[in-house]
Each structure stands twice: as structure tokens, then as C-alpha cells.
Amino acid sequence: MASSPNKFLLILAIATILLPSIAVATEYVVGGDAIGWKPNFNYTDWAKDKMFMVGDTLVFKYDPTKHDVYKVNGTAFSECVTPPGAEVLKSGNDIVTLKSAGNKWYLCSTLGHCANGQKLKITVMDMMSAPQPSPNAAPPNVFVGFFQIFVSLAIVILLSSYAT
């Protein structure tokens, strides 16, 4: 059976190899820190260059005396209405964890706000549906791969020196 230092080094080697490949969830402040959730802002432009993944979070920051956030369906989003039973958030610092892939729609129910742009539509992807890089895309970061190999080899050498 491996000694305690050997177990630690083995776990460290495995973590060094596997951890960079595990996706880390991203937190998005809707509209950005400076803007937040308010009317007269183009949330479509804000969202267009972002890739929302299952596990990511949206943070809606706003004045709760003036705004709210409703989770709605596509029809309600298009018509700027809040259907009965729709989930409403109203703390002023609402965190929404994206738990499933697909389209998600959010809007403010304050009169005129949705019509003035205070609404957000995003598409959430899971790891299986994420787009593959185009043939002209930059190559993956080779440094990370070499670093993983280097650290793994160093740990193997350390383990072999402990074994002798």
C-alpha cells in the first residue's frame, strides 16, 4: 500500500492532469457591472458574444423599487407580458443558475420597461451541444498541455524516488 506522501503526490498528479479540462462556470452580470438591469439598453448586443453554458449564472443587479425580473416563455417575451405563474425575482441582486440547455427569456414587468429594451433572451448550451471550433480557429493552448505533462513527469519522478 502507498505511503501517505505517495498518495498525496498521486492525487496531485491526477488533479494536475484533469482539472484544466473541467469547465469552470462563468458568472455574468446582466448588462455588465456599470449598467446592470435597466431599460434603454440593448441586451441583445450585450449577450451576442457570450457563450452561456449549463452551470453558468446570471446576476441581475437593479433597484428593486423600480424593476423586477420575470422568467417567461418566448411568446410572453415577444409580447412583453408576464403570464400567470411566471417566476418573478425581485431582490435587486438576483442570481439565476442556468440548469438546462435551451432558450431562456427574462423581462422587467414595470410598465414600458420591456418595450424599451429591458428584456433578455439567451441560448444556453451544454457541453455536448457547444459549437466546435472552426477550421480557421486558433489552435488550442499548447502551453497548458506541456505544463500538464511536465508537472506529471515531475511527480512521477518524485514518486519513483520515494519508492526506492
CATH architecture field of the largest domain: Sandwich
Number of β-strand runs: 8
Please summarize the sheet with the most strands. Answer: 5 strands, mixed
Give me the strand/helix succession: HEHEEEHEEEEH
Give the class-level CATH name of the largest domain. Answer: Mainly Beta
- Rounded to the nearest angstrom, the radius of gyration is 23 Å
Instruction: Write down the domain tally.
Output: 2
End-to-end gap: 14 Å
**CATH level 3 topology of the largest domain:** Immunoglobulin-like
Fraction in helix? 25-40%
Approximate strand percentage: 15-25%
CATH superfamily of the largest domain: Cupredoxins -  blue copper proteins
Quickly give the structural class: alpha/beta
Average pLDDT reading: 82
Low-pLDDT stretches are 134-142
Strand order of the largest sheet: 2-8-7-4-5
Query: How many DSSP H or I helices?
Result: 4
Shape: elongated
Would you write up a description of this structure?
- This protein is α/β, with parallel strands linked by helices and 164 residues long.
- The protein has two domains: 1-23 and 138-164; 24-126, Cupredoxins -  blue copper proteins (Immunoglobulin-like, Sandwich).
- The protein contains four helices and eight strands, in the order αβαβββαββββα.
- A five-stranded mixed sheet has the order 2-8-7-4-5. The chain has a three-stranded mixed sheet with strand order 1-3-6, with no helix packed on it.
- The longest helix is centred in the last third of the chain and has 22 residues, at 142-163.
